[in-house]
Amino acid sequence: MLVRRTDAIDALADPGAAGWGAIAAETVKLMPAPAAMQPTRYIATKWRDQAYGAVASLDVQGVHDGATIAFRLRWRDSAKNAVRFENTDFPDAAALLFPLAADAPLFMGAPGQPVNLWYWRADFPERARSDVASGIGSSRVVDDTAITARAAHDGEFWSVVLRRALKVQANAAESVQLEPGQRLRTTFAVWEGGNLERAGIKAFAPQWVELAIEA
Predict the structure, then answer these.
(1) Of the candidates 161, 195, 199, which has an alpha carbon nearest to the alpha carbon of residue 13?
(2) Per residue, what are the HEC states of the chain?
(3) pLDDT tens per residue, range 18-28
(4) What is the number of other CB atoms lying within 10 angstroms of the CB of residue 65?
(5) What are phi and psi of 82, to 5 degrees?
(6) What is the pLDDT of residue 199?
(7) Closest CA to 19 of 80, 70, 95, 75
(8) Residues facing residue 150 across a β-bridge
(9) Deepest in the core among 42, 125, 151, 165, taking most CB within 10 A?
């Protein structure tokens, strides 16, 4: 997937901006996260006979201007879930995952092979968290201000734009560092809040997506 260079990145902060129509999208197929990706045996057992991973695919686009990068994620979801309340209501959510070590496993990294997640939730539509993980169940928040977001739900689709500086100084070792001309990998996950999806109960891409950041 090519992350295109543009001079109009501020306009593209709007997920409904017409300019996104000129940016090629990559359709990423998703599947339910397997039992091996669940943080506890209890969760894996509880959900064993229940359907989850409701979102089958999402479209991804990327742009940058040499200083800032933005990704637009778009997926079908006819019900907007934007409330988090105890164990009865869960918000829709999405995430990108970047390896911080060359051989980091796609399943949330491993000890000594961490991954960086950009995690957005519909109950906080204008920001996203930067998390780091070194294995299933190890995710922790690194920063909750570096990544900004704008989201729109049109009754059929979510469209979410996540933006961050290519390079960050704070928590630099636990955050993916990006630059024009770089090639790297990422993967994606989506949570359908209306289906009570959260934590390891999600749809995810079971393979890396190759990114090329245009020079």
Answers:
(1) 161
(2) CEEEECCCCCHHHCCCCHHHHHCCCEEEECEECCHHHCCCHHHHHHCCCCCCCCCCEEEEEEEECCCEEEEEEEEECCCCCCCCECCCECCCEEEEEEECCCCCCCCCCECCECEEEEEEECCCCCEEEEEEECCCCCCEEEEEEEEEEEEEECCCEEEEEEEEECCCCCCHHHCCCCCCCCEEEEEEEEECHHHCCCCCCCEECCCCEEEEECC
(3) 999 999 999 99
(4) 16
(5) -130, 25
(6) 87
(7) 70
(8) 161
(9) 151
Contact 122, 214 (CB under 8 A): no
Residues in the chain: 215
Q: What is the mean pLDDT of the chain?
A: 94
What is the percent of the chain where pLDDT is above 90? 82
C-alpha distances in angstroms, 40 versus 37, 105, 117, 133? 9, 19, 20, 16
pLDDT digits (tens, 9 = 90+) for 71-98: 999 999 999 999 998 878 999 999 999 9
- Nearest-angstrom CA–CA distance, 122 and 84: 9
CA 174 to chain centre: 16
Q: Distance between CA atoms of 6 and 18, rounded to whole angstroms?
A: 14
Within 10 angstroms of residue 76's Cβ, the number of other Cβ atoms is: 13
